[in-house]
Fold this sequence. Notes:
By secondary structure, this protein is α/β, with parallel strands linked by helices. β36 and β37 (569-571) form a beta hairpin.
Amino acid sequence: MSTRRPHLHGGGATPVRAAAVLPLLLLVACAVACPLCVRAVDTSSYTVAERTNTLAFLQSFVTPGSTLADAWTGTNFCTWKYVTCEYSSMTLDLQALRPTAPLALPELADSVDGASVLLTRILAGGLGSSLSGTLPASWGRLTRLREVQLGQSALTGPLPTAWGSLTGLRKLNLGGNALSGTLPAEWGSLVHMTTLDLSRNSLTGRIPALWGSMTELEELHLNDNQLTGSLPGAVSVLWLNTVDISNNQLCGCAPRRWDSSYNARLTADPPLTASDCMKANACAVDESSTPAERATLAFLQGFAVSMPSLQSTWADTRYCTWPGVVCDGYDTVALDFSALSLGSGGSLPELSESVDGSLVSVNWVRISGKSAMVSGSLPASWGRLTRLMGVMLVGNALTGPLPAEWGSLTGLWMLELSSNELSGTVPAAWAGLRSMRYWYVNGNQLTGSIPAEMGLLTPWTVDISNNELCGCVPSQWTSSSDITLTADSEVRASDCAAANACAAVTTGITTTTRERPMATASAAGPSSGFAPDTSADCDVIGCARCAVGAAHVCAQCQPGYALRGTNICQPGSSGTAGGARAGAVVAAVTCAVLASSAALVW
């Protein structure tokens, strides 16, 4: 009798035979496509360094008379019980071990190269009192580790900072032990961590802000510890699926993105999720004690000094409970006095020289409406508040100039200074406000012209009306359909350069004008409007020759000085304001704006 070979294609193959052959073919295909998916049965496929160092580390688990001493014989560790070898991974699983003697986690000997140890998973959870001792700091050299399960045991001591070197670690379970100490900021380097369980220990202190670098984190269990302080803003922005921070002593609010509306499972103490959590569960600064909170408190306390009506309600250190202060739980603070009555008014406080403005968390200041009773000048020191995004001081009684120092506020998005009594010129340094989209200075007493360099900015709305400006609005603003511009007709007219030209103003020391110089030669020529006067004494410091009949207008600077567009001689390269120098200034500002706009996201 002949045997007929079944056909996979055609009518000769029965369904039963085809079904029996198909799994075999799939297995063969998998073996061909993925030869490394087959489990290794010995250590011959590993390098000498891998065999030597892995064997040395595994043997350190063995103690005389222990269960492992009987189970682990020879040097082919891939045949040992509790050890699983694969070409791409290696697992030590002691969870089924029933130790005859107490088990401790061994240190990695200095003679062992941790990078050559093949272990990717160490599973030793659920051993209860059979597993005690501390977490070996030397395990931070086991750089191939991807998963460590040591929960439900009797481990004590601190969390090793050296484990921050395990940058490939994805799962770490240390829950249900007796671990103590603080959460290491160094663990912020565990950027591939997806599951972290430190629950049911005796951990204290704050959650490190650097843990916000764990951008792949999906599950975080910190419940049943003694953690304090607020949730750092960098951690609050993580998109987590499961979060348990209950039974701690945390203050402030749990992030909104962690609640059920964002498909996250959040377990937290009620004060963290209450609608008034920022006030009812506010963090005292002395408890939180971060540099940013101390700097923010110092800045805000200046308002209580300069505005007497705030002194009674801004008396403690929990500034998130103060009227007019809004904390959003993301390390940002807004001042909104629009609904407050400041009574006797006050002034804007200076930022103390001892305070690092880059640490102050205030990003919005609004003093308008009922609270519009502030007088005095704009503090130049606010130029160091680099987190500022909006300043709205409409309808107050502010006087004095626009501080040139505010040109450093590169993140400022909205600036409303309308309906005050501000005077002087618009500083050329304000060309540095590259993020500004809304600019209102209408209804003041500003003079001079708008610096030409500000034409390189890309605001959406500008109102400079009802001032005493001369010259012209930057041509980029008048020609752009993307800018809503409100300005007096004189600065928008087609002949504004001539009909609304800026007159020079004598200050007693130097002469200033907002008109850009037209001279391109070393001495004033016909295009400059002034002829050089070599006989008249010049009032301009550093000037060699003044214009005829105008001792306050310099035509040519002395050697070693450079003539600015405002007719001021400054130490620098000698000569007058030429087209090349003006072009260099514009080119530099252009490059700065273009470079910054590449990183700006709207």
